[in-house]
Specification:
Elements: H1 67-73, H2 78-90, H3 96-102, H4 108-123, H5 129-136, H6 143-154, H7 159-171, H8 174-183, H9 189-199, H10 205-218, H11 228-237
Helix pairs in contact: 1-2, 2-4, 3-4, 4-6, 5-6, 6-8, 7-8, 7-9, 8-10, 9-10, 9-11
Length: 240
């Protein structure tokens, strides 16, 4: 059994925290009193309640791979499939349907490359949040593929992402909770802050530390450590 959370890729995601796969950056994080994020994506029935956009996006229809590329995506040699997925991912008009299939490839590198590409397409509005949530929550997939899907989901704030990550923070395993404590900090404050305050009472020291770091980041540097009562007092007194 793992004793710590998986590391999330730092780089373009610029996510804060102490997770094993995560680097820390404040870029992309809104201050506590900033206007709410306007982006929205479709929610699924399995998620906790959250505000839903009136017209949720659907999977974008794009040009299908050429016959040669499609054949290589299904080749028996994993090296050829990896190269094909990387080529597909470089195409700005990449077909999300082909990448969705490749994200479940038995070859780990192929699955990660496809899932990273799906995260970029999600940020561009071409892939709904529900597709990344399905992969982040599928324990039949390799843990690194699931974490990559969580990472891609968190880069674009949405009611669906916030609800999923808040639920994962409350009910996931230790590694999932530690990662969610970082990632939910990039979501809408009304969902993120209460979930993070509750996580200050988590049994894992890593989860508590990540939650406190996310709260500091979203409160313009206020620092009450892991004192849940102090954070709650600040949150309740904050002008709405």
């Amino acid at each position: 059994m793992r004793k710590g959370p998986i590391l999330l890729a730092a780089g373009a995601l610029a996510l804060v925290g102490f997770g094993v796969w995560l680097g820390r950056s404040s870029s992309g994080t809104r201050d506590a009193d900033a206007a709410p994020v306007s982006q929205a994506a479709p929610r699924t029935a399995a998620l906790p309640s959250a505000r839903v956009s009136a017209a949720p996006p659907t999977l974008a229809r794009r040009a299908e791979p050429t016959p040669a590329l499609a054949a290589d995506l299904a080749d028996a040699d994993p090296k050829i499939r990896r190269a094909a997925v990387r080529e597909l991912a470089r195409d700005r008009d990449a077909d999300p349907a082909a990448l969705l299939v490749a994200s479940r490839d038995p070859d780990l590198e192929t699955g990660i490359a496809a899932t990273e590409a799906l995260g970029r397409l999600h940020a561009a509005g071409a892939v709904p949040a529900a597709e990344l949530i399905a992969r982040a929550s599928d324990h039949a997939l390799n843990e690194r593929v699931r974490v990559t899907a969580m990472n891609g989901l968190a880069t674009t704030p949405s009611p669906e992402a916030a609800a999923f990550l808040a639920d994962l923070l409350a009910r996931g395993d230790t590694a999932e909770r530690a990662n969610a404590a970082i990632l939910v900090g990039h979501q809408e404050l009304e969902i993120a802050v209460p979930a993070l305050i509750r996580a200050l009472g988590d049994s894992s020291e890593q989860v508590r530390a990540n939650a406190a770091e996310s709260l500091r980041s979203r409160s313009r540097g206020r620092d009450f450590g892991t004192d849940a009562a102090a954070w709650q007092a600040w949150w309740q007194s904050r002008p709405r």
